[in-house]
Amino acid sequence: MRPHHRPTPRVTRLLGSLLLVAAAGTFVAGAAPTPEVAAEEAARKARPLGEVVPAPASVAPGGSPYRITRDTRIRVGASQEVRRIGEYAAKVLRPSTGYPLPVTASGGQDGIRLRLAKGAFGAEGYRLDSGAKGVTITAAKPAGLFHGVQTLRQLLPAAVEKDSVQPGPWLIAGGTVKDSPRYGWRGAMLDVSRHFFTVDQVKRYVDQLALYKVNKLHLHLSDDQGWRIAVDSWPRLATHGGSTQVGGGPGGFYTKADYKEIVRYAASRYLEVVPEIDMPGHTNAALASYAELNCDGVAPPLYTGTDVGFSSLCVSKDVTYDFVDDVIRELAALTPGRYLHIGGDEAHSTSHEDYVTFMARVQPVVAKYGKTVVGWHQLTGATPAKGAVAQYWGLDGTSAEEKERVAAAARNGTGIVLSPADRIYLDMKYTADTPLGLDWAGLVEVERSYDWDPGNYLPGVPASAVRGVEAPLWTETITKSDDIEYMAFPRLAGAAELGWSPAATHDWDTYKVRLAAQGPRWEALGIDYYRSPQVPWPAR
Ligand code: NGO
Questions:
Q1: 474 CA distance to ligand 1 middle (Å)
Q2: Where residue 276 sits, what CATH number does that domain have?
Q3: 376 C-beta closer than 6 A to ligand 1
Q4: How far apart are CA 252 and CA 192, in angstroms?
Q5: Does 219 share its domain with 298?
Q6: Closest CA to 320 of 341, 340, 350
Q7: What is the pLDDT of residues 277-306, one digit of tens each?
């Protein structure tokens, strides 16, 4: 930073009277700072332009900051969708600034401007220009503007996230951020089967995901312990199969209206919902609801424990495929997103031959209803459909043979989403003392969770096959929003950064400093988080 300009003392009237020079080289009391000095002072108070998670692709600081004031307008142009993003930004900024921040279509160069324009931004990229007159976010698509607004939020002081009026000043450092994601798949999965989470709880998580530019919400809608989505043609799936959860609580399910509301809300934050119906294993809730789905025709009781691998749909029965067709048809009709996840993990009670048969019959059903198949990476043990995506959830200790099976599929055109369990399973304990979570994949502290490269993580997988990164949160031990947050934060931010930021920005020592600055933000937002000793959090 340049040294301060020193104002020339204005020795005018009464020589020798009230000149209060505190020390040589400091300001003269009572003298108005020159505009230059004021600008530099302000620039020093603004948060550094690059101190954002995920790290932007490029940051060029410089010039005066923009200061949001009582007169600031949010200029959105004529597009209704951009107006909606402007209203979203206003809703974030109004309570803490106390300013009216009207959202207006009227033109002008000042204020906070959201502009759609042609340019090499990609589907989700944006550019943010900040200077004394205003902040302009430019993107080719609304999603880019929305992500730019998340950057804008983080450039303001953490107190901007509070819901009561705060002192400010509300400065955004001067300069230019040019940003676009490394990967198109930046996901978070929530298991709503082991414990059920209400629509409002899911929305709360969606809002938190949006802060970090996550763009996929994968919902694990069925498992042994609960079926969570209404299916009109098989109503007992939800009413009986959804009637409990791990530990025996009341469970619950989403009506079609509930699910549509989640989809709508997620879309308003530029997240695409990826629904999962796990098959052929992890199906006790379905098997308990309809006796005919069982090979022996006997419905098992509902299950509220946490074992895995004991249930299977009956691969040899025709009714199984009627069931699968109905479920996929109804779910596809509710889902505007491109993907439908069919699980396929831990089918330990299905023979290999049956597994291959089942996947060969079910994948075309997904295509028939216009969706792309996603499966856990065990799908690569069958023949993945053309264009399918395999979600890898192995760990360092996974056998070379299993890794090679995934790599071979990737070389053959299967897309890969990386969810290594010993890195970004958000349900793994941080340390042996973590009160929640599991430890079958090991203990996963914040540095371990962040410090790997999706681009060369799995040997033999071409970098071009990697679609991105997804952080799953399984909920055997998770029962409320505070639990979700404690396990997700701070690791979710790291997973989001791995998915968004260029590999060249990857560096734990600088990341941990940017991450530390998120702590006060989470506090302002009421997000419970794990204060890892690896991160230099500011003192509270
Ligand atoms: C595994 C298993 C899930 C568990 C989870 C717990 C996958 C893909 N299948 O991940 O059923 O809930 O571990 O960490």
A1: 7
A2: 3.20.20.80
A3: yes
A4: 9
A5: yes
A6: 350
A7: 999 999 999 999 999 999 999 999 999 999
